[in-house]
Amino acid sequence: MTRRKWKSSVLFIRVLGDEQIMSNVKAQMSNQLINKIKNKEARIAVIGLGYVGLPLCMEFAKKGFCVTGIDVDRKRVESVNKGVSYIGDVKSSEIKSYVKEKSFQATTDYRILGKHDAIIMCVPTPLRKTKEPDISYIIDASKKIAKTLKAERLVVLESTTYPGTTDEVIQPILEKSGLKAGEDFYLAFSPERVDPGNEKYNTANIPKVIGGINSQSTFMAKTLYNQVNDHVIAVSSSRVAEMVKLLENTFRSVNIALVNELAIMCGYLDIDVWEVIEAAATKPFGFMPFYPGPGIGGHCIPLDPFYLTWKSRLHGYEAKFIELAGEINRAMPEYVIRKIRDILNNRKKSINGSTVFILGVAYKKDVGDWRESPAIEIISMLLKKGANVSFNDPYVSEINIGNTLMRSKDLNKSLLGKSSCTVIITNHSVYDYKFIVENSSAVLDTRNATGRLKRIFENVFKL
Ligand SMILES: NC(=O)c1ccc[n+]([C@@H]2O[C@H](COP(=O)([O-])OP(=O)(O)OC[C@H]3O[C@@H](n4cnc5c(N)ncnc54)[C@H](O)[C@@H]3O)[C@@H](O)[C@H]2O)c1
Fold first, then answer.
1. Ligand 1 atom closest to Cα of 73?
2. Fewest CB within a 10 Å sphere: which of 4, 77, 243, 365?
3. Is 245 inside any structural domain?
4. Residue 133 burial (CB < 10 Å; 0-12/13-18/19+)?
5. How many angstroms separate the alpha carbon of residue 48 from the centre of ligand 1?
6. Atom of ligand 1 nearest to the CA of 70
7. Is residue 400 a part of any domain in this protein?
8. Domain membership of residue 188 as a residue range
9. Mode of pairing for the β-strands spanning 355-359 and 443-445
10. Which CATH number covers residue 222?
């Protein structure tokens, strides 16, 4: 089909119903890969076996596909092949059974990609120190894919990134293979929306958005994800799909910043911000609750919006909301330090020389991921100010603060009693908050984990 015809197919997506577009597109395509996917004969390769990639491998294996995971981290590859999980949401027993029945294996060897029909990239997309996107992992993986790329293959990017990455960056790299994207092979973007630790929503039941570089690519990616996802939504291009993810995470960042600022204002006015949010959330329309905290962490919310500001700046537009939200959210750890200082000051103590016990260093509850966690910055600041700091986290055994390794300590009466201030940074569900409050001298609760206890005990202070 000519390029012009493809463009008109893409345009159709916006005006026709999903089913009608897809049947028009399908009529123009070879059935080879479509049939392989539908018959579960397509071999799937997932590049990057982290929080996103490993659960995705499990989903494809569960649905009867043969899956290969590729990672540059030899330890992760060995762990997978031994059936040992390092991701909270994936059970070792699950990996073990797929490895045993040979429907799942892991390797560091990219050459194996030549034998795969669908290749999905789930590599990291961090920010550089300058807050510019670092898509070097995507580029590296794409260059390696190009070396063995063949016709009638599907390549999908799931890593969060700025609009244009798939068609402006990946497509030219893959086309160095001599094959034409959208004609010889298919290329699409599908944002990953997984929420680690969420027991209700997982890789299979979170609706999946997909957008190809042309309608054939969208069709092929939709065909693939239909096998593992309950609900797949096709959009008109890879750029739209890339923007969808950035909207979702920018929405969270901006709304969290709003309630963080509200928490600061409530602090001055001596109002319980959580009580305010709880009551506001009773409105059945037009309000969605977000909650304040000690700062944002993890691999997504603190980073993703800046992929958008960067891209927008290239077009001469400064994204104001994102920058302001980032500023407010980044200032929260400092606000927590002020709160600790005030609590100690009222007891005629200073941070310098006091023992502070941090509960929870993971960036959110019930997970062991401490990347970008505000706890790290809070502990660093306390150490710099001369505090003796220890921490407990049932999911994190050790952390690095600069060059210093800190190990999780037992949560017991003795350590709580010895500390001048206990600070709840992460509201893990397994904590016994009554025990914590009863045995602490003072508790700063940055997450409302103590709930109504703070109305009963005078030693509990809110954010
Ligand atoms: N973690 C989340 O909750 C989440 C949710 C939605 C989207 N995302 C996005 O998904 C992407 C992956 O995130 P993650 O949390 O799974 O990251 P992760 O760090 O947990 O895993 C990434 C894996 O990729 C491997 N890797 C790096 N470069 C590679 C290469 N060139 N070839 C093969 N493997 C390579 C790493 O060794 C690592 O095991 C990121 O873009 C992230 O923003 C993450």
1. 37
2. 4
3. no
4. buried
5. 6
6. 33
7. yes
8. 3-236
9. unpaired
10. 3.40.50.720
Distance 284 CA to ligand 1 centre (A): 37
Asked if 446 and 356 sit in the same domain, the reply is yes
Please check whether residues 257 and 228 belong to one and the same domain: no
Which residue, of 179, 202, 236, is where some domain finishes?
236
What is the DSSP secondary-structure string of 428-455?
-TT--HHHHHHH-S-EEESS-TTTTHHH
Do 195 and 278 share a structural domain?
A: no
Residue 330, number of CB atoms within 10 A of its CB: 15
Residues 279 and 355 in one domain: yes
Whether 166 lines ligand 1, by a CB cut-off of 6 Å, is no
Give the ligand 1 atom nearest the CA of 161: 41
C-beta of 364 in contact with ligand 1 (< 6 A) = no
The verdict on the CB of residue 141 being under 6 Å from ligand 1 is: yes
Q: Is 50 in the pocket of ligand 1 (CB under 6 A)?
A: yes
Nearest in space to 186 (alpha carbons), one of 229, 225, 215:
215
Q: Which residue's CA is minimally distant from atom 15 of ligand 1? A: 51
How far, in Å, from the CA of 71 to the mean position of ligand 1? 10
Residue 394 lies in a domain: yes
CA distance 142 to 139: 5
Active site residues: 300
Whether the pLDDT of residue 11 is over 90: the answer is no
Can you tell me which residue has the tokens 């068609």? Answer: 167
Co-location of 301 and 209 in the same domain: no
Q: Which of 79, 140, 299 to mutate to test the pocket of ligand 1 (most atoms within 8 A of CB)?
A: 299
pTM, two decimals, is 0.91
State the Cα torsion 174-53-246-198 to the nearest 10°.
Answer: 170
Say how many Å lie between the CA of residue 262 and the centre of ligand 1. Answer: 33
pLDDT of the residue at 19: 67
Chain segment 393-405, per-residue pLDDT in tens: 999 999 999 989 9
Q: Verify whether ligand 1 is closer than 6 Å to residue 53 (CB atom).
A: yes
Residues 284, 349 share a domain: yes
Q: Which atom of ligand 1 is nearest to the CA of 191?
A: 7
CB 48 near ligand 1, within 6 Å = yes
d(CA 355, CA 437): 16
Q: How far apart are CA 246 and CA 254, in angstroms?
A: 12
Q: Which residue has the tokens 């306390």?
A: 382
Structure tokens at 59: 């989903």
Contact 291, 274 (CB under 8 A): yes
Question: Is the C-alpha dihedral spanning 346, 350, 353, 356 positive or negative?
Answer: positive
Q: Regarding beta strands 186-189 and 208-212, do their DSSP bridges make them parallel or antiparallel, or are they unpaired?
A: antiparallel
Domains held by the chain: number: 2
Boundary-marking domain end, from 203, 236, 269: 236
119, part of any domain: yes
pLDDT, tens digit (0-9, with 9 covering 90-100), for 327-385: 999 999 999 999 999 999 999 999 999 999 999 999 999 999 998 999 999 999 999 99
